[in-house]
Amino acid sequence: MDTFESGHGFEDLPPEWRSVSRRWGHSLHSLCSYFAMFPPQLARFFVNWLTEPGDAVYDPFSGRGTLALEATLQGRRSFSSDANPLAVVLSRAKTRIPSQRALLKRLAELRNGYASASICIDDEPPHIAMLYSDATLMQLVWLKSQLDPRDDVDCFWIATILGMLHANHEKSGATRGFSISMPNTFAMAPGYVARYIKEHGLERPTVDVFAMLEQRLGRLNLPTAKRVSGRTWLHDATAPPPAWLVRERPKMIFTSPPYLQVIKYGKYNWVRLWFLGEQPSEVDQRLMASASLQRYLAFMEVVSKNLRQVVAEDGYVCFVIGDVRRGEADLNLAQAVWDNVLRAQGWHLHGIIADEIPQQRKVSRIWKHNSGRATKVDRLLLLSPTPRGLPDIVKPSWDAHRTFADTRT
Ligand SMILES: C[S@@+](CC[C@H](N)C(=O)[O-])C[C@H]1O[C@@H](n2cnc3c(N)ncnc32)[C@H](O)[C@@H]1O
User: Which CATH superfamily is domain 10-87+230-265+278-399 in?
Assistant: First the structure.
């Protein structure tokens, strides 16, 4: 590994993670799409720089588990929580990764069970039935009834299914997912999808879910042995942290809190939440979503107070916070959080640096007319609980992204 010269401040940090291809990352990162994920390169850089193998790292807004996977790949102990049950399943799949053999064995069991099961799809909601052929829906309903998210192998299969529940078809007509042709990233409102199906005469494809899952698994490049690197749990970041997490003393908390009312995670994931047996409106109620700056700052005040209890005394907290549009101007939300919340809590600030993101890469562009929309600037706000220096910057070995580090924990 290369190191940069020592003595750099955070503000001089070269955007090393931007020098790597946009497609960089382990194939597991793309298990299922998720709004407002941060780039794996960024997570990799900070895990390498601020932690050592065996250290604990924590993401309290873990989303699809980008930090969780990078920490796991690099032999760190990974702790992740989120108030969205979809995020918990995705992050858990990247923290407790089963072996390919165990996954294939379970898939065979499920396929055999399905062969002799009698499954009724009459009670499934019409807006779900409009997406899948009857044969495909029967397989999905069977898998939904059999898979237990508390089991690591089953949780991994659930996450894989969630990633394939809807996707566009290829020009050739080949399917990438199980549904009629529709975007993979998010699902438009059921009424809109119903009209679209009718107007464009879309046919529900008959696909074999079991065969597609097996093919997908073959492309995920899993470790040969199972890899269990930590824990993931459902948790509202404004609630007190669990005592066991406080005892873990994570060396680094690296996280991207929600922005000002940019994203309705429940509403746009109604198909995935059907599979999880969750109500989209209930999920959205549990998540922070307010266009009020005052409420957002009050939220961040509680969150950062909780994180102060958790992070190691010699550790670091990095918030990735995007600028948001307020009226005609862009608001530097990270700076506002520092000025109004963190400074008074006595944190040591290493600096706030801008990370420019090409606009078209942000999924949140579909909300471009919203007042709280995300703009092209994300900012990294780096803190420590007490004044301390920064370690020498370590360049990750970017070419090793396809493998899991040897370090076992
Ligand atoms: C910007 S996203 C994080 C994305 C993540 N870094 C990734 O790479 O996928 C913000 C996350 O905050 C979660 N969230 C919103 N309100 C929350 C709350 N009160 N407590 C915990 N998580 C919350 C959302 O469910 C979402 O997953």
Answer: Vaccinia Virus protein VP39 (3.40.50.150)
